[in-house]
Design goal:
Layout: H1 2-26, H2 30-63, H3 68-72, H4 79-82, H5 110-144
């Protein structure tokens, strides 16, 4: 039922578009056609030059040195410089947990923050465990070459 109404709307829109486009094109004079051709031709001819000009400005902007204000801003930091520096947020709301018996409307996000911290801790612990196992396996391989195989 809903798809038939949708199809009816689409067919009405298509008919309106076809009718309006036909009426518009039939009413164009020679001057209007010339104007359209000039605009489209100018766009096609000038577009490569405008793109090249924009590329030069962008290259100059990328090559310039950053001043101290830009260096100190957070936007100047690259994501790669932040990798490996994951910190678990402090448990600031754990002290308040014992005081109030039930949850109120003001602390509705506390459990979500706690779950997020626990998830981050688990991920970090798993990563540390994996790195320790890899380091242990590498050290065993280093020692293995010196052992006698008799």
């Amino acid at each position: 039922m809903a798809s038939t109404a949708l199809m009816d709307n689409v067919s009405v829109w298509a008919g309106n578009f076809q009718h309006n486009l036909g009426e518009t094109v039939s009413k164009l004079a020679l001057q209007d056609y010339i104007r359209i051709v000039i605009i489209l031709g100018g766009y096609c001819l000038l577009r490569p030059y405008l793109l090249r000009l924009g590329g030069r400005f962008q290259a100059k902007d990328h090559e310039r040195d950053l001043d101290q204000d830009e260096m100190s801003s957070a936007a100047a930091m690259s994501p790669n410089s932040l990798r490996g520096q994951v910190q678990v947020p402090e448990d600031s709301d754990d002290e308040e947990e014992g005081e109030g018996g039930g949850s109120t409307g003001t602390d509705w996000g506390r459990n979500a923050r706690r779950r997020q911290r626990q998830m981050i801790r688990k991920i970090l612990e798993a990563e540390e465990k994996l790195r320790a196992e890899e380091a242990e396996a590498d050290s065993d391989k280093d020692i293995e070459e010196f052992l006698d195989k008799s």
